[in-house]
Amino acid sequence: MEKMNPLRIGNLIALVPVVQGGMGVGISLSGLASAVANEGGIGVISSAGLGLLYKHLGVDYISASIEGLREEIRIAREKTKGVIGVNVMVAMSNYADMVKTAIASKADVIFSGAGLPLDLTGFLKRDSKTKLVPIVSSGRAAKIICQKWQNEYQYLPDAIVVEGPKVGGHLGFKETQLSDENYSLEQIVPQVITSVKEFEDKYKKQIPVIAAGGIYTGADIKNMLALGASGVQMGTRFVTTYECDAAEAFKNTYINAQKGDVVIIQSPVGMPGRAISNEFLERVKKGLKQPIRCPFKCIKTCEVSSSPYCIITALYNAFKGNLKNGYAFAGANAYLANKLVSVKEIFDELKEQYAKTLKSVSERYE
What we know:
Layout: E1 7-9, E2 12-14, E3 18-20, H1 30-38, E4 42-46, H2 50-53, H3 61-79, E5 83-87, H4 95-104, E6 109-112, E7 131-136, H5 139-153, E8 160-163, E9 169-170, H6 185-203, E10 209-212, H7 218-226, E11 231-234, H8 248-255, E12 262-266, E13 272-276, H9 279-285, H10 311-320, H11 343-364
Parallel strand pairs: 3-11, 4-5, 5-6, 6-7, 7-8, 8-10, 10-11
Antiparallel strand pairs: 1-2, 9-13, 12-13
Helix pairs in contact: 1-3, 3-4, 5-6, 7-11
């Protein structure tokens, strides 16, 4: 069977070029991340909302988040010798604490998006081994980050994730751009590769580009690698696994979803997001939800005074299986899931599909 080439990020090697996307609140923790790492991919712990999951370990949300991230990295390390990353959103109010904790806990990689992580390299110590991977949605953003990091820190990204408009959760696009072919992943991956190539050539450093958003099958992986990507990021695909850290009711939301149920919503943090429609979101639409207070101040851009609900509470409720008081973020292809499977089964299927796609392509040209 024809194998995919490994994904190399500096001295880190993922034998299968698949990064599991970071999914908060609580959807991708040490359970899912370690299972993906054990199959040769890069497992990613989401740092979003850990202060809620670990409130018993801290005097406040911030301290509980720090202790929670330490604990999740520790548990993941016990379960795998593979590559473990942490996703930290720039928009989080405890961004700096989460980055420092990930580095101090020796996470292999930090993936950082939801804003431009322009000062991310400033947190590294001289002996830090953690690799830094910004998440962008355009070639322009990739160039800005490369220039800023090189000029101020003499450091270039160890890789770059480019997220297209089909990702789940908060989107780095305006709503009008989501169906515009000019902003499709197939269009922006080559643009990001071109943007980073000038820095690769000038500074003699490899910057692998990892494609994300709507990637679900081995054929999808083949298509992205053919465009020049070194790997792919997949989040939605791993939700309906036994090892995913969310409650079974959350996973069933994906399994029971039809294509029309995957919708674009306006999030309280001021960005469009992709989620699975449910009763809770219908009540929001009708103006029946209204927050009483903001207990966490977790996202810098959250419009507390006009928000119809507290987003972190809604996502935490969903993670626990309480979908009456929350909802599930999801990628555009979430409706394709029809049963629970193991992470190993997904990797086996992806490899098989990839090999079949390669075989059919080669036969076409014989």
